[in-house]
Design a protein that fits this description.
With 483 residues, the chain is an alpha/beta fold. It has 12 helices and 18 strands. The chain folds into 2 domains: 35-393, Alkaline Phosphatase, subunit A (3-Layer(aba) Sandwich); 396-474, Arylsulfatase, C-terminal domain. Helices cover 25% and strands 15% of the residues. It has a 9-stranded mixed beta sheet, with helices on both faces. It has a 4-stranded antiparallel beta sheet with strand order 15-16-17-18, covered by helices on one side. Strand 17 (413-418) and strand 18 (424-428) form a beta hairpin. The radius of gyration is 21 Å and the shape is globular. 52% of the residues are buried. The model is unreliable at 1-34 and 475-482 (pLDDT under 50).
Length: 483
């Protein structure tokens, strides 16, 4: 790693204000305002692996937490709410995940090359989370602070946000390094990745809405823990002097993660201070898994046995940019009324389930768009066991555009299809969480079943991998240096 260079970044206020009236006119006809509509806070972190916390992500797996990082607020979050051991990001990459969450659809349905034109408000009637909530009650206020990065000329206010930082990407998080140095550069400053300033704007928004009596949706999309490494000097020194773990050992990343953790704690503190915890749901998840090594390797799809050491997402295989579990299984937790503190659910859920879940929690009486892929996981809050929770076809379909491959999970079985090589792999996640044993050759009927289901879904959404777009040379999300 290069020598730490101290650098303090000044933050210019750049919140853009939008009134969101259009969304209300399109999706709402009511005038009366129910007094008990819940508040929602959604915290999205960046490039954070499933085991990149000091909190067990699965009580049954002692190695489902870090051997080096300290995240006391993640532990606090888990103690107050429910962990989803099978929580998934919609994609193994940033932009498709962020798009998916806003609209409750899979990246395969939304596409990549055509997303910009098909989802722009001028071309397509879309329902995003703020628009949906304002259709329930026009009293809802919505804000998005931090990384937006849809790469589609769609601004937060286009989707019903009243306040935002605008159309931001990684560079707005003070990503200073070049492509060659970003995996080694370290910057010490008092507002690493703008964690502090983003959090201040979030707290201010919460305080104003609580005083005015408006229910609210707040999305805090952190730039951390995306490279380059930025941290406070104090936290960097702490991890520089700490014994390194066998899996996790980078003090710059560890410091940045703890600084992020501190920011999350301030939001939890404000909920307590304002006394709104009995009517507020808080969701915490990550946009994709962590990178498998620092720096990442070119042969990231190779079997784990080919590497001299365990990956950063161990016991999961792979990481960001792959649809192995390490690329899509992420920290996923929820706090809120009716949720048993310290509980755990093993039912698979994902980011495109968030919109219908918020709709359910807000007691939406309007029909949601028919082309949603998400399913409300509110029923799971009533029990930490396997509560009845059925999605259409009981399946999760993932697709990654850059190095094109798709996967489908049905029950404990997961199939991965690589489009260029035509290779398929099959894993039994219940008995092989690390995806070490490809059982496709000995389970032909299961391969046929899952591949048929995968192809049926991709056909039904007219997926770009089957129907190449005329904009295919203009993809926005397959540049590793940008995401």
């Amino acid at each position: 790693m290069s020598n730490p260079a101290k650098k303090v970044f000044s933050l210019l206020p750049f919140a853009f204000i939008g009134i969101g009236v259009l969304s209300v006119l399109l999706f709402s006809s009511h005038k009366s305002v129910p007094a008990n509509k819940p508040n929602f806070i959604f915290i999205l972190t960046d490039d954070q692996g499933w085991t990149s916390t000091s909190q067990l992500m699965d009580d049954k797996l002692p190695n489902s937490k870090s051997d080096y990082f300290e995240t006391l607020q993640f532990e606090r979050f888990a103690a107050k709410g429910m962990r989803f051991t099978n929580g998934y990001a919609p994609c193994a990459l940033c932009c498709p995940t962020r798009r998916s969450i806003q609209f409750g659809q899979t990246p395969a349905r939304q596409g990549d090359a055509d997303f910009k034109q098909n989802y722009h408000p001028d071309f397509k009637k879309v329902t995003a989370i703020p628009q949906m909530l304002k259709s329930i009650s026009p009293e809802y206020r919505a804000a998005h602070f931090g990384k937006w990065d849809l790469r589609a000329d769609i601004f937060p206010e286009d989707l019903g946000y009243d306040e935002s930082d605008g159309d931001t990407g990684n560079n707005n998080g003070d990503m200073n390094s070049t492509k060659k140095t970003k995996w080694s550069d370290l910057f010490l400053n008092n507002d690493p990745k703008r964690i502090e300033s983003i959090t201040k704007r979030a707290l201010n928004f919460m305080n104003r809405q609580a005083k005015s009596g408006h229910p609210f949706y707040l999305q805090v999309s952190h730039y951390a823990t995306h490279v380059d490494f930025q941290t406070r000097e104090k936290t960097y020194e702490k991890y520089s002097n700490k014994t390194k773990g066998a899996i996790h050992n980078n003090p710059g990343y560890a410091g940045m993660l703890e600084d992020l953790d501190t920011g999350i704690g301030k939001i939890l503190n404000m909920v307590d201070k304002l006394g709104i915890g009995d009517n507020t749901y808080i969701i915490l998840m990550t946009d994709n898994g962590g990178v498998e090594f620092i720096p990442p390797v070119k042969n990231k799809f190779d079997h784990p046995s080919t590497f001299a050491r365990k990956t950063r997402n161990y016991p999961l295989r792979g990481g960001k940019w792959t649809l192995y579990e390490g690329g899509i299984r992420v920290p996923f937790m929820v706090i809120g009324p009716g949720i048993k503190p310290g509980s755990q659910s093993d039912v698979p859920v994902t980011g495109w389930d968030i919109l219908p879940t918020l709709s359910d929690l807000a007691e939406n009486k309007h029909a949601l768009p028919p082309n949603l892929d998400g399913k409300s996981f509110k029923p799971l809050f009533a029990s930490s066991s396997t509560h009845p929770f059925k999605r259409e076809n009981d399946q999760l379909v993932f697709h990654y555009f850059g190095n094109s491959h798709s996967s489908i999970r049905v029950g404990d079985y997961k199939l991965i299809k690589f489009w260029k090589s035509k290779k398929v792999e099959l894993y039994d996640l219940k008995n092989d969480l690390g995806e070490l044993n490809d059982i496709s050759s000995s389970n032909k009927p299961k391969v046929k079943e899952l591949e048929t289901r995968l192809m049926t879904y991709l056909e039904s959404v007219h997926a770009e991998v089957l129907y190449p777009s005329k904009n295919a040379g203009k993809k926005e999300t397959d540049d590793d240096s940008e995401d």
